TrEMBL record:
Transmembrane segments: none annotated. The keyword Hydrolase applies. Signal peptide: none annotated. One of its GO terms (molecular function) is hydrolase activity. Keywords: Hydrolase. This is Phospholipase. Residues 25-213 form the Phospholipase/carboxylesterase/thioesterase domain. It comes from Zoogloea dura. Pfam families: Abhydrolase_2. It comes from the Bacteria. Belongs to the AB hydrolase superfamily. AB hydrolase 2 family.
Length: 227
């Protein structure tokens, strides 16, 4: 996604650093956008710019520095048998993200029922992990070219709690980083858990195309503003 000409200032006094685009007038909701591994919060600024002005949007920086302007939520190695992660770091980042969501809701005065957490690649992984283990913290979540970590299984919420969530799975059919089979697994798992979700596939790679961006905005707007 193209970045905004001028990013909001970086705020670093909560559990995670972030940049906030406040809503114009009374906020209709809050959207948290999480970036992929090795990137930073600015990478999703173009997506933030497409969301309605009535929504407050937080561009969230992952907690682990990897290099100049490069961050992650956990280390990952891509092997022939699939991604291998630092599970302890992933769990620590999940807990930290949940703390941050609550802190930001308090700061903005926007309730959990009007909050969506979403992310690209590793950001989608973190969004799913937060929502599926504490569904009372958000209204819904979106996985853009990501997956759901099986490591969160012991912390999954009850079926009754998960029934309040809405989710979006978005994946490119030609993704060479996280193959589309991961979206198939997410689809099957959310169905088993009883989570309402939409599953959309695109003739794309590991990326957020203009069509993916438009569809994400439409889904988010429908969830937070139209309901």
């Amino acid at each position: 996604m193209n970045v905004l000409p001028q990013l909001p200032p970086l705020v670093e006094d909560l559990s995670l650093a972030y940049r906030l685009r406040p809503a114009s007038g009374e906020p209709a909701g809050l959207v948290l956008l999480l970036h992929g591994v090795g990137s930073n919060e600015a990478s999703l600024a173009g997506l933030a710019a497409l969301l309605p002005a009535s929504l407050s949007v937080a561009l969230v920086r992952s907690p682990i520095p990897m290099g100049p302007a490069s961050f992650s939520a956990f280390a990952v190695n891509f092997t022939a048998s699939g991604p291998v992660i630092d599970a302890d770091a992933a769990e620590a980042s999940r807990v930290r993200l949940l703390a941050f969501i609550e802190e930001l809701q308090v700061r903005t005065g926007i309730e959990a029922g009007k909050t969506v957490v979403a992310g690209f690649s590793q950001g989608g992984i973190m969004s799913a992990g937060a929502a599926l283990t504490r569904p009372q913290a958000v209204r819904g979540f979106a996985i853009l070219s990501g997956r759901i970590l099986p490591e969160i299984t012991p912390a999954l919420a009850s079926p009754e709690a998960l029934a309040q969530l809405d989710a979006l799975i978005v994946h490119g059919s030609f993704d060479d980083r996280l193959p589309v089979s991961w979206a198939d697994r997410s689809h099957a798992w959310l169905k088993e858990l009883g989570v309402r979700f939409e599953d959309r596939r695109y003739p794309a790679g590991h990326e957020v195309t203009p069509q993916i961006a438009r569809d994400f905005v439409e889904w988010t707007t429908g969830l937070l503003i139209s309901t």
